[in-house]
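Hey,

The postdoc asked me to send both predictions to you directly instead of through the lab channel. I've kept everything plain text so nothing gets mangled by the mail client. Protein one:
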Amino acid sequence: MEIAVRVESWPLVHPFRITGWTYDAIDVVVAVVRDGDHEGRGEAAGVDYLGDMPADIAATIESTRDAFRGGMDRARLQSLLPIGGARNALDCALWDLEAARSGRPAWQAAGVAAPKPCLTTWTIGAEAPEVVAERAIAYGPARAIKLKLTGDGLDAERVRAARAARPDVWLGVDGNQGFSRDGLERLMPVLVEAGVALIEQPLPLDRDADLDDLVSPIPIAADESVQGLAAIETLSPGFSVINIKLDKCGGLTEALAMAQAARARGLGVMVGNMLGTSLAMAPAFIVGQLCDVVDLDGPVLLTRDRPPAADYSDGMIWCGEHIWGGGRSVPAPAH
C-alpha cells in the first residue's frame, strides 16, 4: 500500500465564532491510500481544543508510511494510532478503499440499512442577536438550527432572536464548555420558553460532575466530554445524549461502535462534525443513519465545497456513493 497526504484550506462564508475560538477558514488533511488499481480517501480537521492540528495530523500520517507498505487494515490501524484526526483520515480512507476493492458500498459493509436523506442542523455562530436573527432567516431551507452560545450575557437574546425569526424550526444550542452550572440554570427558563430541544456541552469537561444531580427539562448532550468509545462508560448521568464526531473518535470504525454502545446504555445518539467538505461528511452520514440528531452542515458554511458535493435541500443532507464509499478505481496513467 502507498499513502499520500496533503493539507488544504477552505474559506468560510462568515467568521465562525464559538467559545474561545473564531475561524475564518478551516484547514483539513486529506489522506489517500492506494493499493494497485484502487484507492481510498479520507478527510480530517482534527480536534483543535486538544491541540490536534492539521500539520501534526499530516506528520502523523506520514509516519505510518512504512507500516502501510507492509499492508494495513482497519483493525490494525486501531492499535497503530490513538483516536484523533490522523486515525480518522486513514480509517475513512481504508473504508473507501475496501468499497473500491469489493464493489460493496461502505454503508452496506457497515451493516446499516439502505441510507436515506437525514434532517441536518444548520449552525449559527455566537453572533450579536440581530445577526443571529438575520442568519436564521437567511438559512431559509433549514428545518433545524443550532446556536452557538458562550455564557457572555447575550445568550438569552440570541435564543429569543432565533426563535422569533424562525418559529418553525427544531432549535438546539451548543455551549462549547462556556457555562457554569449556575449560569446554565439561569438560562434554562429562556431555553424552555423558546422550545429548545437539545443543549450541547454546556460545562467545561472537567466540571461534568456538576451535572450529576441536575434534573434538566431539556436533554443534554456530551460533546467534548466524550471523545471515544471508552468515555461512554464513565459519562456523567447528567448527559442523556452523546455527540459522535469522527475526528474525535478516530474514524468510522469507532464511531459505529460508539453508536451501538450508547444505545445499549439507553443514551440518545448524535453525529456532528469539526467543519470540512463533503468528503468528511460522507462517512459521518453513514453514522447519521443510526442517530436521533444529525449535525453535518460543514460544507454549508464554506464558500465552496469539494466536488462531488453532498446534496443539501429542504433541510436534508444526502451523500451518495459517488462522493465516498463506493467502487472507484485509480485512473489509468496517460500515455
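Protein two:
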Amino acid sequence: MKARARKAVGGVAILAFLALYIWAAVSLGALVPTQWAVRLAYYALAGVCWGLPLIPLIRWMNGEGRDGPKE
C-alpha cells in the first residue's frame, strides 16, 4: 500500500478509535466515586493512556516495519 493511502486509512482509524475511547472513558468515568482525587486520577490516567494503543498504527502509517523505517 502506498504511503498516502496508509496515512488516509490510519487517519480514519485514529478518529474511529478516539471516538470509541472517549465514549468508553466517559461511560466508565460515571462509575468512578465522586471524590475529587479519585476522579482526578482516573481522568489523568485516561487522558494519557489513549496514545499507547495507537503507537503500532502510527508506525504502520509511517512505513516502519519490524526492521525499522523503509528507505
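Summary for protein two, as requested: Residues 3-63 form one domain.

Thanks,
C.
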